Amino acid sequence: MAKEIIHTDKAPAAIGAYSQAVKAGDTVYLSGQIPLDPATMTVVEGGFAAEAHQVFKNLKAVCEAAGGSLDQIVKLNAFLTDLSNFATFNEVMSQYMSQPYPARAAIGVASLPKGVQVEADAVMVLGS
């Protein structure tokens, strides 16, 4: 099965040896998004909630570039440097995604690139 590389200027450019997403069949594997403003490639300011909003805006842009939407995500992994932000992450997520929500993991990590507080990656199935 051939793989298709997904790229959009509406999400941050990759800052390493990876693609924003890879489509294989009807499945799209979205790389982790951190709260970078795609226009400036700088971390958004305003605390954890602002960072979480930017993560979902970036994921949304990649989903749309692949021909889908956030509601077609079937699996989401969230990485938080402070699990006390878990409730805030849930609140922000509910503003971008509708029920039924995807399967999800929330993982506490020691650090993330560029010193951000949150990162999320996902798997989306087109036509779902």
From TrEMBL:
Gene3D superfamilies: RutC-like. InterPro entries: RidA, RutC-like_sf, YjgF/YER057c/UK114. SUPFAM superfamilies: YjgF-like. PANTHER family: 2-IMINOBUTANOATE/2-IMINOPROPANOATE DEAMINASE RIDA (PTHR11803), 2-IMINOBUTANOATE_2-IMINOPROPANOATE DEAMINASE (PTHR11803:SF39). Belongs to the RutC family. This is RidA family protein. It comes from Vogesella facilis. The lineage of its organism: Bacteria, Pseudomonadati, Pseudomonadota, Betaproteobacteria, Neisseriales.
